[in-house]
Design goal:
2 copies of one chain form a homodimer. Chain A is mostly helical. In chain A, 60% of the residues lie in helices and 11% in strands. A 3-stranded antiparallel β-sheet of chain A has the order 1-3-2. The radius of gyration of chain A is 19 Å and the shape is elongated. Chains A and B meet through helix 1, helix 2, helix 3 and helix 7 of A and helix 1, helix 2, helix 3 and helix 7 of B. Chain B binds a DNA duplex (30 and 30 nucleotides) through helix 4 and helix 5.
DNA sequence: TATAGTAGGTACCTAGAGGAAAGTGACTAT
DNA sequence: ATAGTCACTTTCCTCTAGGTACCTACTATA
């Protein structure tokens, strides 16, 4: 069903960019967005510092930037509690959750094919062309 | 089927990065790779300049870089014909073609949800929080 | 008194990605 | 003799994503 015909058909919708997925790739797969969405989906509603600690290597500045972007795109819902100390909670939106099957698909492809990529890299590096 | 359980199950495979899809995202969705793979899949085996013209805005330097990377990752097959002028043909590999359903899935999500993202952005911009 | 915790904001800096433009080599067509 | 083709390569330059470090206000705790 999701075969070559789908791909070709979808391509017709945006002939000028030669790739109808460019827009969605920028939204969904720009830097840090997958770990953030993944963590939010995995652990449910959580606070800024929890997110920061779970992702591990992200800096607060960048985490804020990405969360704002995801909020603007409607993928994440931010709830501010005006307390002291301040409390802010982030959760994935319905739109964000609608990516779950896609992410699962991606994870499945990775499980099936990542070792092939590794193998190809090894082959290329041990016997470089020309 | 591809629901929350899949997502969670996949997450268990790489606890340290908090996101099992990071690796595959870098391989498949790094800059220019989707337009290149899309064009290769759409128009079949083709030469460097054809690719260049179809993608439109890419520079030869970057196109070469991305094609090398895709070749190393086993997504693209390069064939060199030592003629004058030189002739090089690129085609998508079997591994690359195995991404087709995933890309179709992505295009489907885009068709269903891109306008929601647009709407969310508009709402955010016309009535910014706080 | 001073320190920690929270959710950021701000200023500064650097590395690296990517663009522009020209060059290359070997041959062909005019 | 000159120009053109192809598939790059090289050089130079810009831009920006992202990192480091420090700052904010307010309170509870030691």
């Amino acid at each position: 069903m999701a075969d070559n015909a789908d791909w070709v058909a979808a391509a017709e919708t945006d002939p000028e960019l030669a790739c109808p997925t460019s827009a969605v790739v920028e939204i969904v797969f720009s830097r840090w967005t997958t770990p953030i969405l993944w963590t939010l989906n995995r652990h449910g509603r959580q606070r800024f510092v929890e997110l920061e600690r779970r992702i591990g290597t992200i800096t607060p500045k960048v985490l804020t930037q990405r969360l704002r972007q995801l909020e603007r795109d409607g993928m994440v819902v931010r709830t501010y509690h005006p307390e002291v100390p301040p409390r802010v909670e982030y959760e994935i939106s319905e739109l964000g959750r609608s990516l779950a099957p896609l992410f699962a698909h991606l994870a499945e492809w990775a499980a099936d094919n990542l070792d092939k990529v590794e193998q190809a890299r090894h082959d290329y590096d041990t016997d470089p062309p020309k």
